[in-house]
From TrEMBL:
EC numbers, comma separated: 2.5.1.32
Stretches of the chain forming a coiled coil according to its record: none
Gene designation: crtB
Xref: InterPro entries: Isoprenoid_synthase_dom_sf, Squ/phyt_synthse, Squalene/phytoene_synthase_CS, Trans_IPPS_bact-type, Trans_IPPS_HH
UniProt organism field: Sutcliffiella rhizosphaerae
Name listed for the protein in its UniProt record: 15-cis-phytoene synthase
Pathway(s) the chain acts in: Carotenoid biosynthesis
Domain of life (superkingdom): Bacteria
UniProt entry keywords in alphabetical sequence: Carotenoid biosynthesis, Membrane, Transferase, Transmembrane, Transmembrane helix
Molecular function GO labels: transferase activity
Residue stretches spanning the membrane: 124-141
Top EC class, one word: transferase
Amino acid sequence: MNVAYAYHHCESIIKENSQTFYKAFTLLPPDKRKAVWAVYAFCRQVDDIVDEGRSPKQELLKFKQQYASFINGNLPSSQPMWIALQDVFQTYEMDTKAFHDMIIGQEMDLNKKNYFTEKEVLNYSYYVAGTVGLMILPILAPKNKEKLKKDAIALGQAMQLTNILRDIGEDLDRGRIYIPIHKLEKAGYSVEELKKHIINIKFISVWEELALKAEFLYKQAMSSIHMYPLHSRVPVKSAAYLYRAILYVIRQKGYNVFKKKQYVTNNEKSQIISQLM
């Protein structure tokens, strides 16, 4: 299998699973774009093991072993993702710990179902999403990657909080509660009400509190956008603005996060990106 095919395969994965990221990072120069596809394919494979694997613990352990072998210079298998990722690691000074931490984050979903404090949620958000910022930073801004680490993590955390606020119903179906339970209880809203999909002023107040944290992190992430090379600025801003727009859509739909997955339409995405160009 040649590298070009491997990258093409990775592109098909992101195109199928995340139109938002695909639309944003398509704006990168071709070589950098392909590298981001490969990183996304890695993240997607770990995520799919946890959410859809028949024996997720065993499969994740095998994947961890494959990554350890990969870091030692071996190609774990002939899967296109590993072939593309090998080319990425040979081209860029990648953050190997960030990839390892991403696996740890996905492993958390196998061992922890309920989150009680904002601190717990932010820690989880670092492992499953802040790490992604670190993983692609050497591709997007190789000269300033050390200076941008904190804000790259912030962007990943903001996106993960957005995911959590969008996917409350979907996560409940999987037996998971990521919205901080202590915050719900403090507002006088019970887990039983959450499971009954009750949307009231108490629920909305907690939802908005977490959304405010996400907005703060988006703002932090964008404060250093000038430190990215010109060719990376619009893609990074697009990813941030497209994801942040999900929060606006949820508000417009009356905070209905239980029965329907809210999303930004293709027309809305195009409008947002055109304003950033």
